[in-house]
Amino acid sequence: DAGITQSPRHKVTETGTPVTLRCHQTENHRYMYWYRQDPGHGLRLIHYSYGVKDTDKGEVSDGYSVSRSKTEDFLLTLESATSSQTSVYFCAISEPGDQPQHFGDGTRLSIL
Amino acid sequence: KQEVTQIPAALSVPEGENLVLNCSFTDSAIYNLQWFRQDPGKGLTSLLLIQSSQREQTSGRLNASLDKSSGRSTLYIAASQPGDSATYLCAPGGATNKLIFGTGTLLAVQP
Fold it and tell me: CA–CA separation, A101 vs A93, rounded Å?
């Protein structure tokens, strides 16, 4: 795949705990994205970054925060996890302009 | 708000058939449109990207068309093979390449 590593790949945690997911890229792409995928809803954009320290909200950003201190890393944090945040989380990268997005293999997160 | 619909939701065909997957979207002010495939338990693989100024794009046995004014795109798969079995997703792209996804078409190609 396009040099995108998501960690962890699987995580089970309890309601109320903080959770951080990491996306690491080796492609030096400027844009990075976090999506969640749920049955019946498809993929929905949580947050995205258009450069180091430049981030913005997506469609379903409530309960999530992000940080990007380096080009290669984009972190997604659930400050206090809830059961409704159980999902599969995907990171994606792209360059500006009419360039395709490339996806990581996903993180399966279960919140009990 | 952009809404994306993919029809059919599921499709089963015998090997060798040509098939068409449909995607419609409500906001025609898009920059481009991408088609992806997703295998079970995996991430998305980009298949084709059509720029808003283009009418179609081809890659091997795949051909995607775009009619931006009517809010429609189709993915044509020629001579389908069992390895084509997957979920196919379309996603119109906006500013900063933000994508809005449909819920996909689950394709099964029977040997």
Answer: 5
